[in-house]
From TrEMBL:
This is YfiR family protein. It comes from Pseudomonas aeruginosa. It holds the Pfam family DUF4154.
């Protein structure tokens, strides 16, 4: 069981991204970008370095 343990969640663009994934990959064209869901990150217990958050294309919140 993962209950009580920090879990990193990454999804490709889609419903999962707006529902609760911490990071959402946007694959298209020559670049891959990602969005960070700050609410999901805060609830997860996973510590994310601020430099990673600065790389996010857009910091999404539901």
């Amino acid at each position: 069981s993962l209950a009580g343990h920090p879990v990193l969640s990454i999804s490709e663009r889609g419903t999962e991204c707006s529902v609760g994934s911490m990071f959402c990959l946007n694959v298209g064209g020559p670049r891959i970008t990602f969005e960070a869901n700050l609410d999901s990150i805060a609830r997860s217990g996973v510590r994310v370095h601020p430099s990673v958050l600065k790389l996010a294309r857009r910091q999404a919140t539901p």
